[in-house]
Amino acid sequence: MRSPIAYSPRPGPLGEASALAASVYLGSIAVVAFVCSNPIVLAGAGAAVVVAGIGAGAGRALAASARWAATLGVLIVAVNGIASQRGETILVRGWDLPLLGQVDVSGEALAEGAVLALRIGVVLGAFAVHSARVDPDRLMRLVRPFARHSALTAALITRLVPLAAADHARLRDAIALRGPGAAPGGRAALARRLLAGSLDRAVEVAASLELRGYARGAPRAGRRPRASRHSWRFAAAGVAIAALGIGGRLAGAGEFDAYPVTVVEADPTTLALAAALPVLAAVPFAGLRRRRG
Hints:
Blueprint: H1 13-16, H2 19-35, H3 39-56, H4 59-83, E1 90-97, E2 101-106, H5 107-133, H6 136-143, H7 148-176, H8 187-211, H9 231-250, E3 256-257, E4 263-264, H10 268-282, H11 288-292
Antiparallel strand pairs: 1-2, 3-4
């Protein structure tokens, strides 16, 4: 079973673009999510991620990141509602919890947690598409002249993490298919088997690297691939998205205050900023099918 976020070569403009241009394009959406806290702008950034994922053919990666974000988002909202004892709209008063005492849950705390969950969902989606459609070898080749050992470590991580996810899925299916007389396989047993398999694979990877000559120093650089004609489109769109998000935030657009009363600014500037993000994300894909035909 292949992990949905594992890199798989697929013909398309984003896959054919350079690793730097694709990283700038997808990373700019994450930058907007980190800079802006307004849920309307974050929704626009989420729409931009969906446009990028569909255009790149990474629907499975988007679906997986949405499931992870939903699970993590529920936890974030619950924890923030309990931990943040601020806000004027009290929804639950006098809730006694062990070690915490009396806890009040406010609507403002839940709103702030929902914004944090939405931000994490946008970032997860952007990096899921990046992991599924950007060649990790080409990406690590960019940083090899500056951090040779770190680049090798990062390249191995990008390869081994999807393998660990696939191992987890296979082990979970194997445990579910065992007979009723088998010993129960809980999360602890699954984690132990997964850790043991990861350690065995790490030893095999180390032996393979030694046989390939990595112990004698870095290999000579091979021939660089030709730059794609799509690279400048994605790089320009990424710069425009980041500039729009940062510039709009510095100009005061998209204000959001959670406390003491939640205030979400929804003026025309904020709405225009949110609507422009998916449009800019779709620009690199516009006209490519017609041109190919």
